[in-house]
């Protein structure tokens, strides 16, 4: 929180970061109660870049290289999740805010937070709810929070589509809808693991 205030992040951005961190940590907590993850710590994760629709760059985890053996589950790091969630949009008002915020975290000695923040805008989720990382938690939180409250994937994505179309990007709708459906598959897996829906988890 000190970094956010010292950086002069706008109040509405701080509210968004708090909400994303809250959602991410709630999901991480119940996943830990359900057995944790088979993915390695972020410090050992390799993010690979790839070309997305329209030539944009995306990031994903190469699980063939980084997944740990079955039976060696670990708890998701909720302190890291909280910090990365709180700082992920600290520089939102700046161009390429993900890189600006990640570079800030590196200068402050927060390399794992920086690693998550740098990919959060272009991140492709894992397809297996047993191999979630802290990056997945933060990015899921960012996909279901509308400004400073939990809204769910449908409402959040409709907001993103409307914003893109207001800016003249009429090709955005099918791309975003495709990503939404892919995300829903993972969300359903998570809900099966934790025995409740995200709406129920975030009910209060």
Summarize the structure.
This protein has 204 residues and is mostly helical.
Features:
two-stranded antiparallel ribbon, globular, mainly alpha, 204 residues, 56% helix, two-stranded antiparallel sheet
Structure description:
This protein has 204 residues and is mainly alpha-helical. The protein has one domain (2-201). Helix content is 56%, strand content 7%. The chain is built from ten helices and four strands, in the order ααββαααααββααα. The chain has helices spanning 2-6, 11-33, 63-66, 78-87, 97-107, 111-119, 134-144, 153-166, 172-194, 198-201; strands at 47-51, 57-61, 145-146, 149-150. The protein has a two-stranded antiparallel ribbon. Strands 3-4 form a two-stranded antiparallel ribbon. Strand 1 and strand 2 form a beta hairpin. Helix 2 packs across helix 7. The model has no long low-confidence stretch (mean pLDDT 89).
Number of helices: 10
Spatial extent as radius of gyration: 16 Å
Tell me the major beta sheet.
2 strands, antiparallel
Strand order of the largest sheet: 1-2
Element layout with pairings:
Blueprint: H1 2-6, H2 11-33, E1 47-51, E2 57-61, H3 63-66, H4 78-87, H5 97-107, H6 111-119, H7 134-144, E3 145-146, E4 149-150, H8 153-166, H9 172-194, H10 198-201
């Amino acid at each position: 929180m000190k970094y956010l205030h010292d950086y002069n992040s706008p109040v509405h951005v701080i509210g968004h970061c708090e909400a994303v961190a809250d959602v991410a940590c709630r999901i991480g907590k119940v996943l830990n109660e359900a057995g944790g993850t088979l993915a390695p710590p972020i410090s050992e994760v390799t993010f690979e870049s790839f070309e997305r629709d329209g030539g944009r760059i995306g990031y994903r985890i190469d699980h063939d290289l980084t997944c740990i053996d079955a039976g060696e589950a670990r708890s998701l790091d909720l302190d890291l999740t909280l910090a990365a969630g709180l700082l992920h949009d600290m520089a939102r008002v700046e161009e390429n805010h993900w890189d600006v915020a990640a570079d800030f975290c590196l200068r402050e000695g927060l390399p794992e937070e920086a690693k998550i923040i740098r990919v959060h805008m272009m991140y492709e989720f894992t397809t297996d709810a047993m191999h979630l990382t802290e990056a997945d938690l933060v990015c899921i939180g960012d996909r279901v929070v509308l400004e400073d409250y939990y809204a769910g994937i449908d409402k959040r994505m409709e907001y993103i589509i409307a914003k893109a179309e207001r800016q003249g990007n009429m090709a955005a709708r099918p791309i975003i809808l495709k990503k939404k459906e892919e995300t829903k598959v993972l969300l359903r897996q998570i809900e099966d693991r934790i025995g409740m829906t995200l709406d129920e988890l975030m009910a209060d």
